């Protein structure tokens, strides 16, 4: 077993992102595709590939369908990512992303995923334990759950990992996110819609968002990052709240912007950056992802230049 991935990402429901560009996309009409591309993705897979591009040694696990594992294996091979995915019978889902460059709109069609993941749970737990025993210190749990897994799975994994003294970063939504908060993940990154769903009302002002974020976490989460699309993100700790506002965004596709932010948070922490610099660089990662079609990042210098222009305000 190769030693040394300090960070591992867990993607229970990865996806092949099929991105099609359709100028002036019209529902209910015949549409012509201008270009298309296919990328191995899903939240934890994207976080891993972004971090690997920044020079981190990363391991990945979760569930992959055997029938179409090749694009994932190619990605992991190319980026030297340690592949600990559990293989299951069937095919990993294909998610469709319709990018309309004229209207500047992106339509996401996310499929439900494999239905037999419960069969692989013991193997997944083994893979996680092996990583933990082999020196992985931070685990990123990210994305939706495929059918058949209990909504308590993130909560249980977090409790287990915290018991082993590991740090956990969670990017989830819906009931699995709500249940997981009890276990005290170290960092969470909901977007404002996910946080609104959690509290059962539409959160609008920064003040409402901050109050709700602190209320639902009850002091159990060290860093809460609430991303708000074009309005940037709030970085909330017990002591501080910062608003990071992106400037000069060129939006080709929003797919992967949230995952890039998670990767930027982890990278910044590995560099020991203070909160304001972390917020700046994490936003720079997102801006990098926005300028690419599919879950890709530009060169590090480009991301650092984006980060330099981010406006940080202490609230
Ligand atoms: N249209 C946009 N213009 C400028 N920045 C954006 C835009 N969409 C996303 N971002 C940046 O990317 C970050 C993450 O995007 P967001 O859409 O909030 O996350 P998610 O993909 O998880 O829903 C935001 O906090 C912001 O910094
Ligand atoms: O697991 P979910 O919530 O269905 O999301 C999966 C989708 O999210 C992505 O990881 C992109 O996520 P973000 O846009 O939030 O960064 C895609 O690669 C994938 O198709």
Automatic annotation (TrEMBL):
It catalyses: beta-D-fructose 1-phosphate + ATP = beta-D-fructose 1,6-bisphosphate + ADP + H(+). Belongs to the carbohydrate kinase PfkB family. GO terms for molecular function: 1-phosphofructokinase activity; ATP binding. One of its GO terms (cellular component) is cytosol. GO terms for biological process: carbohydrate catabolic process; small molecule metabolic process. This is Phosphofructokinase. The lineage of its organism: Bacteria, Pseudomonadati, Pseudomonadota, Alphaproteobacteria, Hyphomicrobiales. It comes from Cohaesibacter marisflavi. Keywords: ATP-binding, Kinase, Nucleotide-binding, Transferase. CDD domains: FruK_PfkB_like (cd01164).
């Amino acid at each position: 077993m190769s030693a040394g991935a300090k960070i591992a990402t867990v993607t229970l429901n990865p996806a092949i992102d099929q991105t099609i560009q359709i100028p002036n996309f019209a529902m209910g009409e015949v549409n012509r595709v201008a270009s298309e591309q296919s990328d191995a993705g899903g939240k934890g897979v994207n976080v891993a590939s972004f971090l690997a591009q920044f020079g981190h040694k990363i391991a990945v696990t979760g569930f992959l369908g055997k029938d179409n594992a090749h694009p994932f294996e190619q990605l992991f091979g190319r980026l030297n990512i340690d592949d600990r995915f559990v293989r299951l019978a069937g095919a990993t889902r294909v998610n469709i992303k319709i990018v309309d460059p004229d209207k500047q709109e992106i339509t996401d069609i996310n499929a439900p995923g494999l239905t037999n993941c419960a069969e692989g749970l013991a193997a997944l737990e083994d893979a996680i334990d092996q990583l933990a025993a082999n020196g992985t210190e931070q685990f990123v749990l990210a994305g939706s759950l495929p059918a058949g897994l209990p909504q308590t799975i993130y909560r249980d994994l977090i409790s287990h990992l915290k018991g082993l003294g590991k740090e956990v970063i969670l990017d989830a939504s819906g009931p699995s996110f709500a249940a997981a908060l009890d276990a005290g993940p170290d960092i969470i990154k909901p977007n404002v819609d996910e946080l609104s769903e959690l509290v059962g009302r539409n959160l609008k002002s920064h003040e409402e968002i901050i109050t709700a974020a602190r209320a639902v976490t009850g002091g159990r989460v060290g860093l809460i990052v609430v991303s708000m699309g074009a309005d940037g993100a709030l970085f909330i700790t017990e002591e501080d709240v910062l608003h990071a506002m992106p400037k000069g965004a060129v939006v080709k596709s929003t797919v992967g912007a949230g995952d890039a932010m998670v990767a930027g948070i982890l990278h910044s922490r590995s560099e020991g950056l203070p909160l304001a610099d972390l917020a700046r660089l994490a936003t720079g990662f997102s801006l990098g992802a926005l300028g690419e079609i599919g879950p890709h990042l530009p060169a590090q210098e480009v991301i650092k230049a984006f980060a330099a222009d981010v406006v940080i305000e202490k609230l």
